[in-house]
Amino acid sequence: MDDHPFRDGAKAALPVVLGYLPVGVAFGILARKAGFNAFETGLMSLLVYAGASQFIAVEMISKGILWFPIVLTTFFVNLRHLLMSSTLSVYLKKSRIWTLGLLSAQLTDESFAVAVSDTSKILDRPFYLLGLQITSHLAWISGSVGGAFFGSVIDHRKYGLPFALPALFICLLMIQIKGRDHVGIMVMAGIFSLFFKWAFPGNWCILLATLFASVIGMVIKLKVQGSKLKNSSASALIGEGEGGGE
């Protein structure tokens, strides 16, 4: 691993950038139709930087809904960030609180997925995460402003831009699947998500499915580690027995 973590992080952001540009364009188009100008659209992407929440907020604003329900909805939609930021903090124990705060503010689902795909790259390397997140953020702002500027000449439904975000998540999910256990947890997370979507209104299904799938994944991981430890201990005892017999 070289001495340029920020550059490494920026390179790792390429899949996110390729997804954020079309999704940002789609957001910019919708924001412009809701009455935002290009500056306001870019400012929202700079300060809020939460794709799903921005889409929801623009839709609510276009319908004349007051600010408090918008803020409350954004808060609940983004509760999953508590889980993601707490997960990453384990790998950044040497970082100062202001560094963790900055990284948490820049965190998104996609940058989190890239970061945890290889945790050795983020272990006590806050600048790697910063490179990943800032590069992704710039792509999101660029796409948003571009969509606001040129949205009138782009038929976003014709070019499939609304599907860009789900497609990005599918690609990032494939990167993280490294064994049968991962496939099983992925399937269970999908089942939990569908069940909770049916059982509870709103976006609670995201948070609840994440919690349940994470707990099951942790249990499976602990069992696998325990099994490996027992096997290694048994092998060591057999080796000692054979050595004593000689």
Quickly describe the structure.
The chain folds into two domains: 172 residues, no CATH class; 70 residues. It is built from twelve helices and no strands. Helix 1 packs across helix 9 and helix 4 runs antiparallel to helix 5.
What does this structure look like?
- The chain has helices at 5-12, 14-33, 38-47, 51-62, 67-77, 80-89, 97-105, 109-116, 126-150, 164-176, 180-199, 204-245.
- By secondary structure, the protein is mainly α.
- The protein has two domains: 5-176, no CATH class; 177-246.
- Helix 2 runs parallel beside helix 4 (51-62) and helix 11 (180-199) runs antiparallel to helix 12.
- The protein is globular.
- The protein starts with a helix and ends with a helix.
Mean pLDDT: 81
- Beta-strand content bin: under 5%
What is the rounded distance between the termini? 45 Å
> Could you estimate the helical fraction of the residues in percent?
over 70%
Question: What would you report as the Rg, rounded to the nearest angstrom?
Answer: 22 Å
The low-pLDDT segments are: none
- The best one-word shape is globular
Number of structurally distinct domains = 2
Number of strands: 0
